[in-house]
Every structure is written in structure tokens, then in C-alpha cells.
Specification:
Radius of gyration: 35 Å
CATH topology of the largest domain: Helix Hairpins
Number of helices: 8
Helix content: 55-70%
CATH class of the largest domain: Mainly Alpha
Largest sheet: 5 strands, antiparallel
Strand order of the largest sheet: 4-3-2-1-5
Shape: elongated
Oligomer: single chain
Strand content: 15-25%
Number of domains: 3
Number of strands: 8
Distance between the termini: 119 Å
Order of helices and strands: HHHHEEEEHEEHEEHH
């Protein structure tokens, strides 16, 4: 029994010693540590606020100086990240963490982190390429990285798009630079193409006149260059004629929708028949074989 009681008493004594050591540390250093902790928290809060203010101010100044908004946002984001890093190091130093050793630790771990985060480093480099070469800017409507939408922001690692149905899509920058980029709004004007397949019995001049009349009064279209209607596909019982009209790039959607409706109304008004009607005419005209 005495042999079993000895380890228990030793454990109790060790626990008392730890409690006494903790009490002495709190008595001697507790107030100082609490003050350092509060100071570190204040440094972080104020530093984060300063980083946001500097980011916003820098972005506004660069835009006022005539720099591209996309480049201004990208550079402001980098400055914000650098300030936050300095704030964190300062706050840790206030807590007594040796900042020199901390910086050395970051440098030593940089290689390992870089290998582990190759994708993010690639996204960072790709973001710089997007800002430098500028295949698109904020507000452009693009297809990039397998997604389509209006560019909201080119970030350090990702690009944010808003789709036509108001969904937010975040695309890695490396996925954009590694694929095909289609910018629908970079040119000042676009061409609206309305293909119309009609029966072969329709006179092409009549169809062309009907299509061109659909353009009249459409405020979303440009008069220069003038709209045209061209025959593009010809087959045995039908052919396709395309109406091509130019519009400002930002009005493409409105021009497409309104022109579709106008073309349908114009073809119905002028009695232009479809390919099914032409097939029926050919069938009716075919000789009937007697059995």
C-alpha cells in the first residue's frame, strides 16, 4: 500500500509545484502580458483599418491620375496585403515574439510554402499578366477560364465575374491565362446576326427586303455600316439568309432580342414561308404513281 501511495503523493506534489509556478508567473508577469496582449490587438485592429484606408485612397488617386481601374485595384490589393503582413509582425513583436527570428522562420519556410502553394503562386503571376497585358478590364463581358460574365474585379489570385443571370463566379487567374479569352465588349461595336431559314419557293429579293425592313426604327442599331442580308446556305428545298446589323457593344443584348422579334413579325407580314411549307409544295406537285 505504501508503495502505491508514493507515486500518487509525488504526482500531487508535482501538480502543486506547477500551480505555484503558474501563480508566480501570473503574479510577476500577468499584468504585463495582459497589457501586451491588449496592445497587440489594438495594433492589429488599427493596422487593418489603416491598410483598408490606404488601399481605398491609393486606388482613388491612381484612377484620378488616369491609370486603368483594373490596374489600380490590383496594385491597391497588393499594398493592402503588404501592410497587413507588417502589422501582424509588429503585433507579434509586441507579444514578445522575436521578430528577427520570426522573419527568418518565414524566409526559411518560404520555399516549402512556395512548393505547397504552386497553384497560388501561378495565380499570382497570372494576375500580374492579366493586369499588365490587359486582355480585358473591369466592366468587360468575357468568356474566360470556362466561365462567361461581366468582369467585376481582377484580384491577386482570382478574377470575379457576374453572369447574365446575376451569379458570381470566381475563376483562378491561371485558368484564365492558360485558356482562350473572348472579350465581347473590347471593340466599340458588334454585329448582330439573325439567320433565317426559309422555303426554296420564296424569292430571295423578297426575303432580303423583308429582313432589311425589320431594321427600321430600331434605336439599338447603327446606320453605319448599313445592315445587309446575305444568302449563306442553299439546299434543295430551303435556304438560309442572314440579316447582319451593327450595334454598340454595350447594347448587343437589347439589339439581338428586339431584332429577333422584328424579323419574325416582318416575315409573317410579308408572307415568307418556312422550309416545311416548301416541302409540302414539292410533295403536292409530285406525280402520283398508280399501283
Amino acid at each position: 500500500m505504501l508503495a502505491q501511495a508514493a507515486p500518487v503523493a509525488e504526482s500531487i506534489s508535482r501538480g502543486e509545484q506547477l500551480l505555484q509556478a503558474a501563480y508566480r508567473w501570473l503574479t510577476e508577469n500577468g499584468l504585463r502580458f495582459a497589457a501586451s496582449l491588449i496592445t497587440a490587438v489594438i495594433i492589429y485592429i488599427v493596422g487593418a483599418w489603416v491598410a483598408r484606408v490606404v488601399q481605398s485612397l491609393l486606388r482613388r488617386v491612381m484612377i484620378k491620375r488616369g491609370l486603368d481601374e483594373t490596374f489600380a485595384s490590383y496594385l491597391a490589393n497588393i499594398v493592402n496585403a503588404v501592410i497587413l503582413m507588417l502589422v501582424i509582425v509588429t503585433a507579434l513583436g509586441q507579444l514578445g515574439v522575436p521578430t528577427a527570428q520570426f522573419a527568418a522562420l518565414i524566409a526559411a519556410a518560404g520555399l516549402a510554402i512556395g512548393l505547397a502553394l504552386q497553384g497560388n503562386l501561378s495565380n499570382f503571376a497570372s494576375g500580374f499578366m492579366l493586369v499588365f497585358f490587359r486582355p480585358f478590364k473591369r466592366g468587360d463581358y468575357v468568356t474566360a477560364g470556362g466561365s462567361e460574365g461581366t468582369v467585376d474585379e481582377i484580384g491577386i489570385f482570382t478574377t470575379t465575374l457576374t453572369t447574365a443571370d446575376n451569379r458570381k463566379v470566381v475563376v483562378p487567374n491561371s485558368g484564365i491565362t492558360g485558356g482562350v479569352i473572348t472579350n465581347f465588349t473590347i471593340n466599340p461595336r458588334r454585329v448582330v446576326v439573325i439567320p433565317c431559314t426559309v422555303g426554296a419557293d420564296n424569292n430571295p429579293d423578297k426575303v432580303r427586303a423583308s429582313l432589311l425592313s425589320a431594321v427600321t426604327g430600331n434605336k439599338n442599331l447603327l446606320s453605319d455600316p448599313a445592315p445587309v442580308a446575305v444568302l449563306t446556305v442553299l439546299s434543295e428545298n430551303k435556304y438560309t439568309m442572314e440579316l447582319r446589323a451593327s450595334c454598340p457593344s454595350e447594347k448587343y443584348g437589347d439589339a439581338l432580342f428586339t431584332l429577333n422579334e422584328a424579323v419574325k413579325a416582318s416575315l409573317d407580314r410579308d408572307g415568307v414561308s418556312g422550309p416545311l411549307a416548301a416541302i409540302k409544295v414539292l410533295q403536292d406537285a409530285a406525280p402520283v404513281r398508280s399501283l
